[in-house]
Design a protein that fits this description.
Keywords: Membrane, Transmembrane, Transmembrane helix. The chain crosses the membrane at residues 39-67. The chain is mostly helical. It has one domain (1-69). The chain is built from one helix and no strands. The protein has one helix at residues 2-66. The longest helix is centred in the middle third of the chain and has 65 residues, at 2-66.
Length: 69
């Protein structure tokens, strides 16, 4: 009887540990996803900045071409 109770307790503890591990894994995955999203956002921002710079350069070139006239 006592042995059965101990075994049950051990099983319960193992289950709890497994659940905790799963939760930790989920949290890690979520963090990784968030990091990936942040990286993507940064890349998008960099691309936008580059586009803006290109536009500015084009505008400057156009101004320089129109200036002699």
């Amino acid at each position: 009887m006592m042995m059965m109770m101990l075994l049950l307790l051990l099983l319960l503890l193992l289950l709890l540990l497994l659940l905790l591990l799963l939760l930790l894994l989920l949290l890690l995955l979520l963090l990784l996803l968030l990091l990936l999203l942040l990286l993507l956002l940064l890349l998008l921002l960099l691309l936008l900045l580059l586009l803006l710079l290109l536009l500015l350069l084009l505008l400057l070139l156009l101004l320089l071409l129109l200036l002699p006239l």
